[in-house]
């Protein structure tokens, strides 16, 4: 059984569109998130922590809104910015930019305690990225709980949805969906099926499901 680490049942339903029925269940596990400028190290560390907790295959995701004219901000800090500043403030800042292009990005991290064969998709083989993100004075990456530095590799799958920041439109979705326009519609204007088909998470799940079928 694959455990999708999330508090959002909607993510599990989305995953079920790409995986066989009954093969994925939600795992409510509050792992500590590291601070890092990229999504990959955050998802990788979360997958390791979740696997150590569950003892069975786990899938973790980390996602964010990256605004081109703001050098990718809010990026990995999207949830914090939404909670503290709100999406309307992000939209106001972007409205003054010449370049309002943006993208939703999602990285899925999969860990089952085993290694992975070489493939085009990246594999994070240790916590070195997390240690680097800690900066000077932070703890260096050491061995995991079994004493082996590379014992818990994590396979990463990225999904990407391009668009631009616009005035809020639509009643659906959540988070930044009302201000993110893709192909003429905001995510908040799309029905669930349409959004899942083009979303960053859906595209990452599609890549994962194709790989996982042979795992």
UniProtKB/TrEMBL annotation:
Gene3D superfamilies: 3.90.950.10
Record-level Gene Ontology MF annotations: hydrolase activity
Region (Disordered): 118-149
Lineage, broadest ranks: Archaea, Methanobacteriati, Methanobacteriota, Stenosarchaea group, Halobacteria
Protein's name in the database: Non-canonical purine NTP pyrophosphatase
Source taxon at top rank: Archaea
Tagged with keyword Glycoprotein: no
Sequence similarity: Belongs to the HAM1 NTPase family.
UniProt key word Hydrolase: yes
Pfam families referenced in this protein's UniProt entry, alphabetically: Ham1p_like (PF01725)
Keyword field: Hydrolase
């Amino acid at each position: 059984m694959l455990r999708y680490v999330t508090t959002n049942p909607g993510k599990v339903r989305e995953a079920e569109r790409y995986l066989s029925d009954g093969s994925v269940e939600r795992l409510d596990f509050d792992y500590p998130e590291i601070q890092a400028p990229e999504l990959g190290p955050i998802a990788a560390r979360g997958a390791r922590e979740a696997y150590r907790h569950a003892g069975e295959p786990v899938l973790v995701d980390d996602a964010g809104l990256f605004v081109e004219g703001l050098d990718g901000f809010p990026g990995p800090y999207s949830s914090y910015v939404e909670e503290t500043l709100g999406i309307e403030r992000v939209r106001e800042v972007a409205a003054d930019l010449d370049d309002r292009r943006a993208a939703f990005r999602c990285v899925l991290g999969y860990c089952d305690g085993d290694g992975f064969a070489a493939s085009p998709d990246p594999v994070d083989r240790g916590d070195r990225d997390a240690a680097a993100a800690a900066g000077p004075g932070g703890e260096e990456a050491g061995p995991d709980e079994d004493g082996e530095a590379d014992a818990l590799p994590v396979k990463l799958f990225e999904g990407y949805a391009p668009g631009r920041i616009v005035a809020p439109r639509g009643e659906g979705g959540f988070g930044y969906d009302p201000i993110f326009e893709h192909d003429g519609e905001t995510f908040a204007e799309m029905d669930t099926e349409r959004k899942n088909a083009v979303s960053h998470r859906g595209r990452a799940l599609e890549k994962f499901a194709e790989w996982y079928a042979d795992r």
